[in-house]
Each structure stands twice: as structure tokens, then as C-alpha cells.
UniProtKB/TrEMBL annotation:
This is Lactose phosphotransferase system repressor. Signal peptide: none annotated. SUPFAM superfamilies: NagB/RpiA/CoA transferase-like, Winged helix' DNA-binding domain. InterPro entries: Carb_Metab_HTH_regulators (IPR050313), DeoR-like_C (IPR014036), DeoR_HTH (IPR001034), NagB/RpiA_transferase-like (IPR037171), WH-like_DNA-bd_sf (IPR036388), WH_DNA-bd_sf (IPR036390). PANTHER family: GLYCEROL-3-PHOSPHATE REGULON REPRESSOR, HTH-TYPE TRANSCRIPTIONAL REGULATOR SRLR-RELATED. One of its GO terms (molecular function) is DNA-binding transcription factor activity. The lineage of its organism: Bacteria, Bacillati, Actinomycetota, Actinomycetes, Kitasatosporales. SMART domains: DeoRC, HTH_DEOR.
Length: 253
């Protein structure tokens, strides 16, 4: 097997499994661990993976995005802590936008059920999770449903969202970078997210530490657009401080 074929195989494995380990890859491809480390370095240089201690995980791009079904099985404890901390930032907001994605869905489920709230969302999963809450009115944006994320996209969703002014938006992203802001692979998704940023008075980003430093295809917001960033303790305190210098409070849980 040649070098390029092996690297394609490594990338395929990372995208299929969600992460890879050097030891396992060395055994799978029957090469030295140092060879795998060099391969991962090259793939990282090309923006296809992010290396971790002893392995790597795939970076979402215009050509690759994990499905909602996969996201619901990974890093659930960390995502649940992030969601609970984000929900605590609700304050006196009466109207809320909740983005597509599993972490925003957990935020929606963590919102108080004992007070009147109006929740606007493009996510079928969020709408379903909140549909039975007696004091929560749910407005589901219309549009084309993306099978990967079970959320509506396109100009219908953006136009409907543009008619609202919401108090608070909980927004996710495939990547967040101090240089490039918040990004996502799909232009139609970026359109809805950008509209949510424009129509909200306050904005909170929710996402795992693995999102930080990652850059995807479509930029829809700047870090400075957000009053708070809620993530897990995998983001170092030094890196959190760098993001806070751009404006938002960074909360690590």
C-alpha cells in the first residue's frame, strides 16, 4: 500500500469511527507508529484531522459532516454539562432561538419548564423535545430538511427567522477560530445561523473543546458577536483567556 492510499485509509477510518489511535492504525496498516504519526501530521496540515495525544479526530468540512445520530452517542457527559451551564444564562429572556445539533438540543431540554418561553428553532429534534412542555411555545422554521441534521435550511427558514427579534440565541458551529470566527460546512446551514445572529439581542455559543481552532467552509459569525462561550475543560485556561480577549465570557465546565 502506498503512502497516499494509506492516508486516505486513515482519513476514512477517522470519519467512520469518529477518532483514531496511533497504535491501532499502526497495526491496521502494518507500519511503524512513527509512520502513522507522520501521516496524521500531514492530514492535519491539510486541515482534515486534528491530532490529540495518541491519535486524532476528523475535522468537518464541505465534503464531510457527522450526522446527528452519531453526535448523540459521543461525549454526552461533557455536552450535558455544557448544556446545563448554558441554560443557566437564560436570565429574563422570553424568546429563545435554539440551533440545530445535539448540544443545542440538550440546552433546549435543560431550559426551565415552569415559566413561559417561546422557542424558535430549525431543528426537528429540538421541536419534538419541547413539544410536550406546557408553558413552552415552539415555532419550527420551514424549509428543506437536511437528513444529516434533521433541521430545516434554505431561504424559507432564513426569511421566517428574519421576521423575529429574539432575546437570546444558543448557537453551535462545526468550528470556532479566533482568526476565522464561527464556521460550518454547508452554505444553507450558514445562512440560517447568520440570520439567527442578526436577529438576536444576546448570543451564546455552545460546543466541545474540539471545535476550537477548527475551520470549516462557511463563516457565519465572529467570536465578538457572542456574550458567552460555553465549553468543556478540554479547552485550556490559556486558550480560553485568548478567546475572552475578543469579548465573550468563556465558561469551562
Amino acid at each position: 500500500m502506498g503512502t497516499e492510499e494509506r492516508r486516505r485509509g486513515i482519513l476514512h477510518t477517522a470519519r467512520r469511527d469518529g477518532s483514531v489511535e496511533v497504535n491501532a492504525l499502526a497495526a491496521l496498516f502494518r507500519v511503524a507508529k512513527e509512520t502513522i504519526r507522520r501521516d496524521l501530521h500531514v492530514l492535519e496540515e491539510h486541515g482534515l484531522v486534528r491530532r490529540t495525544h495518541g491519535g486524532a479526530y476528523p475535522v468537518e468540512s464541505a465534503g464531510f459532516e457527522t450526522t446527528l445520530a452519531v453526535r448523540t452517542t459521543r461525549n454526552v457527559p461533557q455536552k450535558s454539562r455544557i448544556a446545563a451551564a448554558a441554560a443557566d444564562l437564560l436570565g429574563d429572556a422570553e424568546t429563545v432561538f435554539v440551533d440545530e445539533g445535539f448540544t443545542p438540543q440538550l440546552v433546549a431540554e435543560a431550559l426551565p419548564k415552569d415559566r413561559e418561553l417561546t422557542v424558535v428553532t430549525a431543528s426537528l429534534a429540538v421541536a419534538t423535545a419541547l413539544a410536550g412542555a406546557e408553558k413552552t411555545a415552539v415555532l419550527l422554521l420551514g424549509g428543506r430538511v437536511r437528513g444529516a441534521t434533521l433541521a430545516t435550511v434554505g431561504h424559507w427558514a432564513g426569511r421566517m427567522l428574519g421576521d423575529f427579534v429574539v432575546d437570546l440565541a444558543f448557537i453551535g458551529a462545526n468550528g470556532i477560530s479566533r482568526s476565522y470566527g464561527l464556521t460550518t460546512p454547508d452554505p444553507t446551514v450558514a445562512e440560517v445561523k447568520a440570520q439567527a445572529v442578526r436577529c438576536s439581542r444576546r448570543r451564546v455559543f455552545v460546543g466541545l473543546h474540539t471545535k476550537f481552532g477548527a475551520v470549516s467552509f462557511c463563516r457565519f459569525a465572529e467570536v465578538a458577536d457572542f456574550e458567552a462561550i460555553v465549553t468543556d475543560t478540554g479547552l485550556t485556561s490559556a486558550e480560553a483567556q485568548r478567546y475572552s480577549l475578543l469579548g465573550p465570557q468563556v465558561i469551562r465546565v
